């Protein structure tokens, strides 16, 4: 089949967002996401509630994606879905729906690695956004993952650094919890950081060998710091919130950029692409752009809507796999800990 008229439906259900997207020859026609607000009450994602909400959302979300794309389901050439990593219950909903839908339409089924999809979102045809050239370094930063990946080709990737404990998104959320902020705390810390002094308070960066990351020590340091200061002044957090947020953000960004500097030195690759929900952070985006001036990097930042969990990134991987006729069998199973 020629690559002239290919429609792929992408389905993403790895965590708490139910998403569907239709791609046509590399260009996104629709990208629908149903968020689950229920988890805000609990300060984190509750897996059982997430999978139930996916069951309620998946049919209307797919229907809406097809409607927005202006196509009928019979025009689809394949169905791509997130196989993993993620929450098992959530993944099963997306996988079961995708398998049934593909089987019913008698079209190929394509399984997608969620972490590869964050990286390959850069290859969506989007006006004003350049695509990285191989090889490049990808930094995927999200609530559940922090990785540096050497990308040799679309499906030839080597993880050269990853977190040994908490992911960067967890570091934001746990710091936010200590400060009494809502969930997720990342966007709120980012917003307040822009109003504060990033050097008001100093937090020690963890010393981790090689290209791996650690954020649990930073979280503990922040907790002890706040406890100590609140003992002296019960209004400390309220009076210094913007400065605290700015200092936390400055430290986290410093950890990420330091590792990227080592990675570019070791590999000789100066093309850097970021992905994952935390790449929506304005401070991280600015630090990467500054890296172009300071270190001669060429940086790629995806369109905002393709950074958090979304189905457009699943659809682009589906399209690339379709071109290679890399299809899954009906007995494919979801995998919570799927590796790149």
Account of the 3D structure:
- The two termini are 28 Å apart.
- By secondary structure, the protein is α/β, with parallel strands linked by helices.
- The longest helix has 32 residues, at 236-267.
- Helix 1 runs parallel beside helix 2 (88-105).
- It folds into two domains: 7-123 and 307-323, ATPase, nucleotide binding domain (Nucleotidyltransferase, domain 5, 2-Layer Sandwich), CATH 3.30.420.40; 136-301, 2-Layer Sandwich (Nucleotidyltransferase, domain 5), CATH 3.30.420.40.
- The strands form two sheets. It has a five-stranded mixed beta sheet, sandwiched between helices. A five-stranded mixed beta sheet has the order 8-7-6-9-10, with helices on both faces.
- Helices cover 42% and strands 18% of the residues.
